[in-house]
Amino acid sequence: MRADLHPLEEAGRSSRTIDPCVLVIFGATGDLTSRKLAPAIYNLGREGLLPSNFACVGFARREKTDETFREELKTDISNFSRTKPLDEPFWNNFQNQLFYHQSEFDDDAGYIKLATLLKQLDSRHGTRGNRVFYLSIQPKYFAPVIEKLSKHGLIYDPHKNGGPWSRVIIEKPFGRDFDSAAALQKEISKYLDESQIYRIDHYLGKETVQNLLVFRFANSIFESIWNYKHIDQVQITVAEEIGIGTRGNFYEEEGMLRDMVQNHVMQLVSLVAMEPPVSLSASAIRDEKVKVLQSIRPFLPHDFETHAIRGQYGPGFINGQPVIGYRQEQNVHADSHIETYVALRLFVDNWRWAGVPFYIRAGKRLPKRGTEIAIIFKDAPGVLFQQHGHKHDPNVLAMRIQPDEGIALKINCKVPGPSSPIQPVKMDFRYGSYFGQSPPEAYERLIWDCILGDSTLFARCDEVEQSWQILTPILEYWAKHPNETFPNYPSGSWGPEIADTMIQTDNRSWRIL
Ligand code: BG6
Q: With the C-alpha atoms ordered 262, 265, 269, 270, is the resulting torsion angle positive or negative?
């Protein structure tokens, strides 16, 4: 692949060549494989984006034959693929490239057999020794699995020119706080070069998130107003209707700050706030993103109660249906203090963003699903149309990440007729209706990029560590001071009242989605 070509450049896409390879999925019987990875590989295959010499091995602890594994994947793909119904003729060929390998994650014998299987696949499928190892497993296994892969010769020296390559995709969470992320990084770098590590954050694979860069840097009209002189505030909302479902054990360990803020939300903050990169290379883009994180003002003790808000859902109603509270969910402690909602006020202390608050909120069991970045501009001078107590809405640029992906600009407009009232109207661009298709799933893009060796849309080590650096003091404070008001918002509401108080104290309010 030519290093100067980038996934965001259309011209670059078609001219990138893709090497043959085997994709090995660790955790192949898990939920992520069923819902996301299997459909992603299937759709990549159907669209002709996988290499023609390709095989996929599912690695997991349960006993299973290749045939059963294929049958299960077929069901998963039929249920969860964005394209339906299943394309039978394509599937009948494609399934012959799928294999199952049973082993414990710490069993040397399992890795010896895996190495033999991969060699056989190389000769049968022409995959030439190239490997992607996808670690969709509990974080405690990340380092041990990588150590075993290295021990059994499955991780290659990336500096050997012309030889086969090996890459490792690591699912989140990468660490639980700054120290554990740094320790994990130290451990895995004994076996892997940074160029071989692909820390996945599936938000970066979403079309609308990628479009943020295009929107900002391919349209000259926005750059001159993208700063503290014109922008009053930025609001980022990641709202979900769903609760934690069957992930009680996971949530009791992680909570919302670790699950979605440290990664997805901080990625959105970096993309909105970053400076134009010197090129579209992975390192240039990631350098600029890191600078944003480095500029975020550290939280001080007096902020922890007032500007780092946590919430936990109680029972309530979603779409008119009664739902249970977090503490009643399976595998959750009856007096759990884990947060399912977070709202923060951040400041990016650099020249561009001086004094502009970034309000972010992420929560489960909110009234509707919606991820949005809203740029709220300063009011127009009030001398002409805002007299006699009339106030107009500020201009708002809302980038809808999902659902109903698109961009809307709110502007004030004269209502036709002699009385001339002013009313805000929306100019609305929708991906679905304009391009006539829904965007591909994030995982498709990211698996494809990894096979191509393009790490632009993956998080670099310093990004992850910097993000933990900002948030770890909050986690430490919360651990020491459990919130005694939990549950503090009913399911189906927009979160705890104290999150409203936070923003109202600044004379602002949350956007209504
Ligand atoms: C995952 C979180 O990373 O993202 C989940 O672990 C969350 O808790 C999910 O539901 C949301 O992803 P999406 O693509 O539906 O916004």
A: positive
